[in-house]
Design goal:
The structure is a single chain. The protein is α/β, with parallel strands linked by helices. It has one domain: Aldolase class I (TIM Barrel). The chain contains ten helices and twelve strands. Helix 1 runs parallel beside helix 2. The longest helix has 17 residues. It starts with a strand and ends in a 6-residue tail after the last helix.
Length: 250
């Protein structure tokens, strides 16, 4: 069995790591290069950096930041935010990113998954999906969870896999920010239906939630932000807890 992965997520705005709620009350939580290096030392398996401004003007700033991150990091990292073309992915991968995360752009243009996978390989492509459960249906949203689409979580995840996604990063909008645990039932269903790794996002608040998402949700990796940024759950402590509970981690 492959070891489960712990993945801190860092939102980037104007070259700084920030944390906010729906882009409001955004506060600076640290330098992304220093924070990433700290997480690597603490035992994080991978990192995800998301450019939440993702404007055309911000693209060069983000690419320069990715280059600096790659020079100071010895673990894999994924970058995302506003990747609309193969050329956008090329800029970030050439700057040193190990993978790119694509979300809203591929809902609008699913063929972009195929094109990026053909250009760089499936292992470089993470398709992020934000979905909300309502009346028994998981509806896919775009634009940071603001716009509902006609796509359904499981069907879209399977299509993304068929088109060349190497991993699925699923964020449950129902669980995000609640700190009440991950969407284990939906994650288990995703894992059963897919042959590629599934990364869980949304709902982490306690060490027990990580154990649940690996054991009950069958997730391959668990992503979180605030609990790591504010050192509420130190990564070494989390990994020790998981090992004691027979969860295989690195």
């Amino acid at each position: 069995m492959l070891a489960k992965r712990i993945i801190p997520c860092l939102d980037i705005r104007d070259g700084k790591t920030v944390k906010g709620i729906n882009f409001e009350n955004v506060v600076d939580v640290g330098d992304p290069v220093e924070l990433g290096a700290k997480y690597a030392i603490d035992g994080a398996d991978e990192l995800v950096y998301l450019d939440i401004t993702a404007t055309h003007e911000g693209r060069k700033l983000f690419a320069d930041l990715v280059l600096r991150i790659s020079e100071h990091l010895n673990i894999p990292f994924t970058v995302g935010g506003g990747i609309d073309r193969v050329e956008d992915a090329d800029i970030l991968l050439s700057a040193g990113a190990d993978k790119v995360s694509i979300n809203s752009s591929v809902v609008r243009d699913p063929g972009l998954i195929n094109r990026i996978a053909r250009a760089f390989g499936n292992q470089f492509v993470v398709v992020a999906i934000d979905a909300q459960l309502k009346d028994g249906r998981w509806t896919v949203f775009v634009n940071g969870g603001r716009i509902a689409t006609d796509k359904e979580l499981f069907g879209w995840a399977k299509e993304a896999q068929e088109r060349g996604a190497g991993e699925i990063l699923f964020t449950s909008m129902n669980h995000d920010g609640t700190r009440n645990g991950y969407a284990c039932e939906a994650l288990k269903e995703l894992s059963n239906q897919l042959s590629i790794p599934v990364i869980a996002s949304g709902g982490a608040g306690e060490k027990e939630h990580f154990m649940e998402v690996f054991e009950q949700g069958c997730a391959d990796a668990a992503l979180a932000a605030s609990i790591f940024h504010y050192n509420e759950i130190p990564i070494p402590e989390l990994k020790e807890y998981l090992k004691k509970n027979n969860v295989i981690v690195r």
